[in-house]
Design goal:
A five-stranded mixed beta sheet has the order 5-2-1-7-8. Helix 8 runs antiparallel to helix 9. The radius of gyration is 27 Å and the shape is globular. The C terminus is likely disordered. The chain is α+β, with helices and mostly antiparallel strands. It starts with a strand and ends with a helix. It is about 35% helix and about 25% strand.
Length: about 400
């Protein structure tokens, strides 16, 4: 059993969330222990030295930590793994902590989600790019993305032709911030003068009168579907009430979130937000990454699933680095899995048929030669060669399915 202890840093600024407690009692496959430090991006900083000269050094003020003795103190830790549960960049400059994220990326610290995906998910433009790529790949009928117009700056906001009212979303802001409902063309040009103050980019999309909202959540291979019926007075559900209901996952919702799980090179934690209009048509709005909010009634259960994901990934990195990668970007979707297993079954049947035919031919040869069984011509090498050939063919078929 290993005597090593690995440092896990969880970025979650909510004091009600106690991640060291969730990790308590867990260890890696080789027996290595885990020291968990939970902190906010706002109270963390990173220095990365060359290999052999200190590596990655994180200074932070823990909200919770495994020893229960350092809370509120300024501590130094060398992170071996990072779990990201809050955005590294808030809506205002003072909450922009991308420099800390950059340091962790330079150090190559393994994480959930990957630090590359966390970085890309900070920008709405990158998110829109991924969603449009999915829509193009699988078709609008299967992935009904809302029509999105991109403007790199206020100077380009001369024409909007997808109808009013529309929703303007400015730059990277999330959680209802940086969004405005624009009733007409005059309002569209008015808001362009506000966007000009900071030289931001923005997107515009049709405002949809919704019957309800949908969030499809994926944690590893666990799915949840939330139905949100807006009960507030405003048009943003973030700033009003919402009656939450829970739906079963179906093929439509599963396809949305499974396709989105391939974005940014692969994500283990994500959620897809959509709305349903009064005619029953769905419209996908956006993708949320590692910092997805979890409803309070499922927080412990879903967070424990996240812990299991983190430990599984650490085992692959530190305990079995040569293990084949079965991360989300290499997972087969349902149809590929069915086709793969069908093909494999057919080829196993063919192998059994060939084996019987070869056995029959062997017996025929023995009978003709009237030789004892132990001195007969053996077709075992031939049978083995044929089996290997068929196995290679199955392997190539499986490779094509996955790619």
């Amino acid at each position: 059993m290993s005597e090593k202890t690995y440092n896990v840093v969880v970025f979650d600024g909510n004091q009600l969330h106690n991640w060291p407690e969730l990790f308590r009692g867990h260890s890696l496959a080789d027996g290595s222990k885990l020291n968990v430090v939970q902190c906010s991006w706002n109270h963390a900083s990173v220095t990365v030295y060359p290999e052999g000269a200190g590596g990655c050094i994180l200074q932070c003020v823990p909200i919770h930590e495994s020893t229960c003795s350092l809370r509120g103190q300024n501590v130094t830790v060398r992170p071996d793994f990072v779990l990201v549960r809050n955005q590294a960049r808030g809506p205002t400059p003072v909450t922009d902590n991308r420099r800390t994220l950059y340091g962790l990326m330079i150090a190559g610290v393994p994480s959930i989600n990957s630090l590359d995906s966390v970085y890309q998910d900070l920008e709405r433009a990158a998110m829109v790019s991924e969603l449009k790529a999915i829509e193009k790949r699988v078709g609008h009928a299967k992935f009904p993305l809302v029509p999105i117009t991109y403007y790199e700056g206020h100077e380009r906001m001369t024409v909007y032709d997808s109808g009013f009212p529309c929703v303007i979303k400015v730059s990277h802001a999330h959680a209802g911030m940086g969004k405005a409902k624009v009733p007409d063309n005059d309002g569209f040009h008015d808001i362009s003068t506000i966007i000009a103050l900071n030289q931001d980019y923005c997107t515009a999309e049709p405002y949809i009168e919704t019957a309800f909202g949908i969030r499809v959540q994926k944690i590893g291979n666990n799915y949840r579907v939330y139905k949100k019926v807006h009960t507030g007075s405003g048009w943003k559900s973030h700033f009003g009430g919402a009656d939450l209901q829970f739906l079963e996952i179906n093929d439509t919702f599963k396809l949305w979130v499974d396709e989105c799980a391939k974005c940014y090179g692969g994500m283990e934690l994500l959620a897809v937000d959509a709305v349903c209009d009064h005619q029953g048509n769905y419209h996908i709005l956006e993708l949320n990454g590692s910092a997805i909010g979890i409803k309070s009634q499922f927080w412990k259960e879903d967070s424990e699933a996240i812990v299991e994901l983190a430990i599984d990934k650490m085992n692959k990195v530190y305990c079995n680095p040569q293990a084949p990668d079965d991360s989300v970007d290499n997972q087969m979707n349902a149809q590929e899995w069915l086709e793969h297993n069908k093909t494999r079954g057919e080829q196993l049947q063919e192998m059994r048929k060939l084996k019987l035919e070869l056995e029959y031919e062997r017996m025929q040869i023995q009978q003709q030669r009237q030789e004892p069984l132990e001195n007969s011509f053996s077709l075992v090498p031939l049978l083995g060669a044929l089996a290997i050939g068929i196995g290679l063919g199955w392997g190539l078929s499986f490779f094509r399915v996955k790619n």
